[in-house]
Amino acid sequence: MFLAFMLLATHVLVNLWVSSLVDHVAWDTARRAASDPRYASEPGQVQAEGLSWARSRLGGHADQVQLSFVGDPGGASVVLRVRSRPATILGAASGLGGVHEDVVVRREPT
Question: For the range 38-42, what are the long-range contacts, defined as Cβ-Cβ under 8 Å and sequence gap of 24 or more?
Fold first, then answer.
């Protein structure tokens, strides 16, 4: 019983850590894009650089995360859609965790 509890606790802690990492990287990526002065004229370039930066920060978990900029590049906000499968040691059947959110950051005035 003790080992089952330890396995569950480990699973929850690893998943919380990975979810926190994904969330942090997503917010930083959107913030970096929103504050880049080139975003108005070269949104595709800024988005590509941001996604590359994010993937480098996610390390081995990058294959489990889908990041995409959505919405109007000329709009007042940058929207980054994040979909991440949970980091699991118990198997996907546990149903715990994962990140599914849209990160919205207002653009800096130019």
Answer: 39/73, 39/78, 39/107, 40/74, 40/107, 40/110
- Count of Cβ atoms closer than 10 Å to residue 33 Cβ: 25
Enter the tokens of residue 55.
């993937």
Give the torsion sign (CA, 37, 42, 43, 48): negative
Residue range 7-33: mean pLDDT, rounded: 90
Give the pTM: 0.84
Q: Is pLDDT of 98 > 80?
A: no
What one-character-per-residue DSSP string does 45-68 give? HHHHHHHHHHHHHHGGGGGGEEEE
Per-domain residue ranges of the chain: 2-106
Q: Give how far Cα 72 sits from Cα of 6, 21, 43, 44, 107, Å.
A: 46, 27, 10, 11, 12
